[in-house]
């Protein structure tokens, strides 16, 4: 009787041990699976973050480029305006010079005319004197 009991007990113990082992294995498996899922999730998150960062960088670059373009355009506009102003100034100067030249020419002409008139008068006077003396 004693022996049988012992055997039974042994069997029970063995069964219990097996069950425990199985449970442990199952737990381990579950843990592993969970870990893998977690890892996957982490990887996904990292990828998403990277993508976001890249997008942000791209956006920043685009913005910078746009700003640069705008600045260049502004500079060009300013340059054009300056050129226009300069041209206008030059034109004005030229006009002024032309006017001055014209004035000078007119003055010269007037002077010449006056001189001619004076000469004519002198000639007339001379002729008159000669005529009187002849008489």
UniProtKB/TrEMBL annotation:
Superkingdom of the source species: Eukaryota
Protein name (database record): Uncharacterized protein
Provenance organism: Dreissena polymorpha (Zebra mussel)
């Amino acid at each position: 009787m004693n022996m049988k009991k012992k055997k039974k007990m042994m069997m029970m113990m063995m069964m219990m041990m097996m069950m425990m082992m199985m449970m442990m294995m199952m737990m381990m498996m579950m843990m592993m699976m969970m870990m893998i899922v977690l890892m996957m999730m982490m990887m996904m998150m990292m990828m998403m973050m990277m993508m976001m960062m890249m997008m942000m960088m791209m956006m920043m670059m685009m913005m910078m480029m746009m700003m640069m373009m705008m600045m260049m355009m502004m500079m060009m506009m300013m340059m054009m305006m300056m050129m226009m102003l300069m041209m206008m100034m030059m034109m004005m100067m030229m006009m002024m010079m032309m006017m001055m030249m014209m004035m000078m020419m007119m003055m010269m002409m007037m002077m010449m005319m006056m001189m001619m008139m004076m000469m004519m008068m002198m000639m007339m006077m001379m002729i008159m004197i000669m005529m009187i003396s002849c008489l």
